[in-house]
Specification:
Blueprint: H1 22-35, H2 54-65, E1 73-79, H3 94-103, E2 106-113, H4 116-128, E3 137-141, H5 144-151, H6 164-169, E4 187-198, H7 200-203, E5 222-224, H8 228-238, H9 248-263, E6 267-270, H10 275-281, E7 286-290, H11 291-299, E8 305-307, E9 313-321, H12 329-338, H13 342-352, H14 361-371, H15 374-385, H16 393-397, E10 399-401, H17 407-422
Parallel strand pairs: 1-2, 1-3, 5-6, 5-7, 9-10
Antiparallel strand pairs: 3-9, 4-7, 4-8, 4-9
């Protein structure tokens, strides 16, 4: 399932460099996942029994971790431009270097993941044959592919007795998700929010609701996405339904809401690739957006607003997980816990500028801003005060998770939502 990867808007890596970002990859990955259901992959593999209940999970954890020791090596695979860098040398990752100095664990770091579908297709045959995939730690989005990894037994259950820093500093909004209740297999790496971005100068008022995207005054000036996953979930919110607990009957009502919007001529374009530039140019007055894109646009001189509508917005999460075939799982678990230190999380957030899963990192970024000068001070000061990176408690209360779909549900979902933007 090939993906067409779209470049993102300029990111502030080292405050200057533009590269293909995880945000751009995410747009492509979500859109392609919607266009190509999991069933279409024809991937072999048999489901295993997934442990449930405290006793069963505890037994699985004990079975996996008993006798395993730190080795001094860690092979980590990630998306491109999705970790901290040294502003003076883009090839260096200060938090990885500090981790090695402190723990004596040498990290081999690779940026090889393009999207959920192609990465799963690449490593699944090795999992299926019982071979190691060559990595001890990887980043996986909270989508249908993560569910597939869990159902097939490809992920190690985490020993939370070795994750005290995650327990202490991980934000409540980033724990116990519907795709991994109790964080049995994952801890968040970075997160983001989906809501409405708009140009106040064009709209002429505050936008507060998904229903505002039906306002005739915005006729032909609204941007939506060619992405069944996100579109379906926001339409559920628009119709007053929590996506996580939604039913097929709810999905049909949500699809009707989107058809009403389309047929009224509200939508100028359905695109995950161009909405940000269209907002900045003024072609769109309002659009479905990722929170981080508005932060980046405003750092580049735009004056856009981001809102989590009254009915709610979406919280999505990319996750750290340990393959069940990992050669150095204890080293991977050690790193998992390390990144939840506020100082470390702050350094990562200062580069990637996504929603940070460690609320305590906000004060660290503010301290770094106070110590910095010039453009770096300006960027870090904006970062430390931005609810787009550190959501307020009020914002978090309005965020909802995406609906977790099994294979059969995904077929129903796509049949409802794909035709809306393919027509």
């Amino acid at each position: 399932m090939p993906e067409h990867l779209t470049p993102s808007a300029p990111r502030l890596r080292g405050l200057t460099e533009q590269r293909l970002s995880r945000r751009g990859l995410l747009r492509a990955a979500l859109g392609a996942t919607a266009l190509a259901p999991l069933a279409a992959c024809s991937v072999p593999g048999a489901r295993v029994h997934v442990p449930t209940g405290k006793a069963e999970i505890a037994e699985a954890v004990s079975d996996f971790w008993t006798g395993k020791k730190r080795s001094g090596k860690l092979d980590f695979v990630n998306y491109t431009q999705y970790i901290d860098v040294d502003p003076a040398d883009q090839s260096k990752h200060p938090t990885l270097e500090a981790f090695t100095r402190e723990n004596g664990i040498k990290v081999t770091y690779n940026e090889l993941i393009d999207d959920s579908a192609s990465w799963f297709g690449k490593i699944q045959p090795e999992f299926s044959s019982g071979q190691g995939i060559g990595y001890d730690l990887m980043v996986v989005g909270g989508d249908s592919y993560l569910t597939k990894y869990i159902q097939l037994g490809y992920l190690a259950p985490l020993d939370h007795t070795r994750l005290p820093t995650f327990a202490k500093y991980g934000g409540a909004a980033f724990k116990n998700s519907s795709f991994d209740p109790g964080n049995v297999y994952t801890v968040p790496w970075q997160s983001g929010m989906t809501g409405i971005g708009y140009d106040p100068a064009q709209v002429g008022r505050k936008i507060t609701s998904w229903q505002d995207l039906l306002d005739p005054k915005l006729h032909g000036k609204v941007g939506m996405w060619n992405d069944a996953v996100q579109m379906g979930n926001v339409a559920l919110l628009a119709t007053g339904v929590d996506p996580e607990t939604s039913t097929p009957a709810d999905w049909r009502k949500a699809a009707a809401w989107l058809r009403k919007q389309r047929d009224a001529g509200m939508v100028r374009s359905y695109s995950t690739a161009t909405y940000q530039s269209s907002l900045q140019r003024g072609d769109l007055a309002a659009s479905l957006v990722y929170s981080g894109d508005v932060f980046q646009a405003n750092q580049s001189g735009s004056e856009l607003e981001f809102v989590i509508p009254d009915e709610g917005g979406l919280l999505w999460t990319d996750n750290l997980c340990i393959p069940s075939t990992a050669s150095h799982p204890v080293d991977a678990l050690t790193y998992m816990d390390y990144v939840y230190r506020p100082e470390v999380a702050a350094r990562i957030s200062e580069t990637v500028q996504f929603v940070c899963p460690v609320p305590g990192a906000q004060k660290v970024v503010a301290r770094h801003a106070a110590e910095a000068t010039g453009k770096r001070h300006t960027v870090l000061d904006a970062l430390s005060t931005s609810p787009l990176v550190f959501p307020t408690e009020a914002d978090e209360a309005k965020l909802r998770r995406l609906r977790v779909l099994d294979q059969e549900e995904e077929k129903q979902w796509n049949a409802l939502f794909e035709p809306i933007y393919q027509a």
